[in-house]
Amino acid sequence: MAVHEIKHPLILHKLGLMRAAGISSKDFRELAGEVGNLLTYEATRDMPTESVEIEGWTGEAIVIDKIKGKKITVVPILRAGIGMLDGVLKLIPNAKISVVGLYRDEETLQPVAYFDKVVSDVELRTALIVDPMLATGGTLIATIDLLKRKGCQNILGLFLVAAPEGIKAVVEAHPDVDIYVAAIDAKLDDNGYILPGLGDAGDKIFGTR
Ligand SMILES: O=P(O)(O)OC[C@H]1O[C@H](OP(=O)(O)OP(=O)(O)O)[C@H](O)[C@@H]1O
Ligand SMILES: O=c1cc[nH]c(=O)[nH]1
Ligand SMILES: [Mg+2]
């Protein structure tokens, strides 16, 4: 597994704006989509391409590059992952979407799974998990467990902010999965929130609480 912290100036700038106290849901959601878009660009950098011949605008045959091989299914984790989905789909608009629903129990910090609708041919696809926060890692580990049980073999994850504790747990549980993250922050607080972090990303995206 490789963990990629993408320190692109646009990502640093946009993530910095997301950290401000009192940010509106509208701004938070827009920025989550934009950073999701930039992370998608990085995460797809090594996708293999192949040359194919087509008829060009002059009527002559020309050779172009096309993305080759496994197709993608984007896997937003409800709720907060929905906030990044727009930005991801702007770059890969034909991707099938596999929605999974998990929330983290506030007392135990354990993930509770409540929904999944995964594409039927997931074993033929690369799964691109999207969620703003990777905190203890419990939610991501449970999501990867679920995808692997359904036969998926290629899995990447995109996150806005991750805690070192969560990354360590995921690396131990699933060493084959690649993680792309805009920032690896300092640590978790006593309630399992990332510091300095973004606060509760789901509540900010949906305007709850
Ligand atoms: O790494 P973990 O410790 O498991 O925590 C991360 C999870 O917590 C948040 O979801 P939350 O439970 O708040 O659900 P929500 O998206 O519905 O708000 C976040 O969006 C992740 O899914
Ligand atoms: O910091 C955190 C941790 C989990 N979930 C969030 O939304 N934020
Ligand atoms: Mg939440």
TrEMBL record:
Its EC number is 2.4.2.9. It is an enzyme of class 2 (transferase). Pathway: Pyrimidine metabolism; UMP biosynthesis via salvage pathway; UMP from uracil: step 1/1. InterPro entries: PRTase-like (IPR029057), PRTase_dom (IPR000836), Upp_B (IPR034332), UPRT (IPR005765), UPRTase/APRTase (IPR050054). GO terms for molecular function: glycosyltransferase activity. It catalyses: UMP + diphosphate = 5-phospho-alpha-D-ribose 1-diphosphate + uracil. CDD domains: PRTases_typeI. Keywords: Allosteric enzyme, Glycosyltransferase, GTP-binding, Magnesium, Nucleotide-binding, Transferase. Transmembrane segments: none annotated. Allosterically activated by GTP. Its cofactor is Mg(2+). 5-phospho-alpha-D-ribose 1-diphosphate binds at residues 79, 104, 131-139, 200. Residues 7-208 form the Phosphoribosyltransferase domain. PANTHER family: ADENINE PHOSPHORIBOSYLTRANSFERASE, URACIL PHOSPHORIBOSYLTRANSFERASE, CHLOROPLASTIC. Catalyzes the conversion of uracil and 5-phospho-alpha-D-ribose 1-diphosphate (PRPP) to UMP and diphosphate. Belongs to the UPRTase family. This is Uracil phosphoribosyltransferase. It comes from Aliiglaciecola litoralis.
